[in-house]
Design a protein that fits this description.
This protein has about 180 residues and is an alpha/beta fold. It has one domain (about 1-175). It has helices spanning about 1-10, 15-25, 30-35, 170-175; strands at about 55-60, 65-70, 75, 75-85, 85-90, 95, 100-110, 110-115, 120-130, 130-135, 150-155, 160-165. The strands form three sheets. A five-stranded parallel β-sheet has the order 1-4-7-11-9, with no helix packed on it. Strands 2-5-8-12-10 form a five-stranded parallel β-sheet.
């Protein structure tokens, strides 16, 4: 729960969460487990936050491109629009604000690519007319405490692709580095 709480609070990216969760499975002693969370607060901050309207982050590309591929904050609702252009949303290093993220993807004669780390649950639904929507997510067990990513896809003469890639630490371990 400590790792998940810090992920939701924005103190860990999905990439960092995945690496630390892998570390919990590899740990042999309590000291090894403690090292994985030593830099994280043990308890959430005291007072609950006042109720706020959930913000929506917009990524819009009209005859151009938008990339969000490094560390960035993902609110509970995100909208990506591509008109004669392309949008890439890479969630592997993203700071997630909620246990569930809803992405509305709208492609009109353009393309949208959404990348999630392996082990993150994805639900893809929507409507496509003369285009395509595709989900290429690795068939691996879901990471405990990882957020659910719901994608509502709407495409007209365009395409929307959701795929998973290993977190950077997972890739280094797989390559033996």
């Amino acid at each position: 729960m400590l790792l998940r709480d810090n992920l939701v609070a924005g103190r860990l990216t999905l990439d960092e969460f995945s690496e630390r969760l892998d570390g919990t499975h590899e740990a042999r002693t309590l000291a090894e487990l403690d090292r994985l969370t030593a830099d994280l607060p043990a308890e959430p901050s005291g007072a609950p936050e006042p109720h706020r309207r959930t913000p929506t982050r917009w990524s819009v590309a009209v005859m151009g491109g938008v990339e969000r591929t490094s560390r960035w904050r993902v609110p509970a609702r995100t909208t990506a629009v591509a008109v004669l252009g392309g949008v890439e949303l890479d969630l592997r290093k993203a700071e997630i604000d909620a246990p569930e993220v809803e992405i509305t993807a709208i492609a009109v004669m353009g393309g949208i690519e959404i990348v999630v780390p392996e082990g993150v649950a994805v639900e893809l639904n929507g409507f496509v007319f003369l285009g395509g929507k595709e989900q290429n997510v690795a068939d691996v067990p879901a990471l405990p405490g990882a957020p659910l990513v719901r994608i509502r896809a709407f495409a007209f003469l365009g395409g929307i692709e959701v795929r998973s890639k290993p977190a950077s630490g997972q890739r280094r371990r797989a390559l033996g580095r």
